[in-house]
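USER:
Try writing one entry.

ASSISTANT:
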Amino acid sequence: MKILLALEPTWTVSVNGMEFIPLSAAEIEIEDTNIRFGRHSRKILGIEWLRPNVARVRTQSRLRAAQDVVTFYPGSVLPSNVDARRRRRLFQNQIARALTGFFHSRQPVRQILHADKQRGIGGAYPRFIIGNRAAIAVDPDESAPVIDCIMRAAIMWSAIARQRISIVVPAHRSRTIVTRLLAMPSLSAEFEWLQWDGETIAPLETKLAESETYVHEYHQPNVQSEVARICALAPDLLQPVPHIPGKAVSIRLRGLEVARVAEAGTTYPMGEPLEPLIESLERDRRYGSRHPLARAYEERWLESNLIRQIGTLLPVSSEWIYPQVPSFVGQDRSIIDLLTITPNGRLVVIEVKVTSDPELPFQALDYWLAVERHRKAGDFTARGYFQGIDIRNEPALLVIVAPLLAFHKSLNRLVANLPRNLPLLQIGINQSWKREIKILRRKGSLG
């Protein structure tokens, strides 16, 4: 340990993963079984090497019986997961001071940062008890999905919190949350919504613009003969799907694109000739295979199977199915979105998810709200979708499709907050959907 400490000029010392102290090598000393780092002094109880240059030391203070875990990281650059904990701890301390000022409280603040796996509350959401007030916040430097998920975290925390909860969101990254709140006034009233601009806390501004989405012009390319030629190589495997942004047709095998046909020509993302590629994909990407390709992009595979069987699963027109319409600006969505229509002209939004995702109901709501905005504006008809069909002036139907075991245990609690005018159907399918989709449970209706 002494040799290790002498090899690096600077160290970052973590105490119980809560305090991160930058120190020079000269500020760290070891004598017998005692270690001093900065202003701290501890007795060494044991050393565990996490990496050749990263040591985790179990220590004990002379003044306390409890043990501390002190981890030494070389330099100032921490591993990404450790750096996230450091950043979150700094934010927690910063927002705690701002909350006591906002609530005009001098009482001690109880702080909670650890994840609550039982209720599905991640470690990105520091929680606070300040007298008779409770608050939950999220760092503006978190990713967009993490920021948006604070709504769900607050709902789950409210089941055990005795106080009314205030929710603090980043002032300049709250567009999706505001859009949801405008659609779910019950949630707006249940919690106190606040915003943090990096310096002060204030009531959340709810006059922000809605989430930005757009509808591409739909152009059906004149490539039918080329699509038919390629699909004839393996008619039971290859599937043509509209590639709307590229004004092309995407030819897929179990969700993976093997060719893209446009009027300007055909491209082959995985290379050619196609025959050996098709043979390889059919062998490796199949139900029961342990090959990595059998587990890659599973949402796309389920989407492919769903499109093939759509007529037997839902009362929709199988000839009118559009993927990812409308598109979200600047967002990377982790679920598959399909837009289709019933024979009598009512829009149907289908959300597809393979793995358990606690945010699924609210992500589905985001897409449904976008579809509704464009439906009311007449964008789908104006941009060439559903030609020859009159789109009914009624709210779109929402269908969530996922393996039955992938529905998160918090689903019902979140669904209870969705808008009352949202017609919702939950479809739980079999785990062996890669072979054939079978409906195990339907909940809700499309009426």
Notes: The two ends are 69 Å apart (CA to CA). Residues 80-102 form the longest helix (23 residues). DSSP finds twelve helices and 25 strands in the chain. The first strand starts at residue 10 and ends at 15.
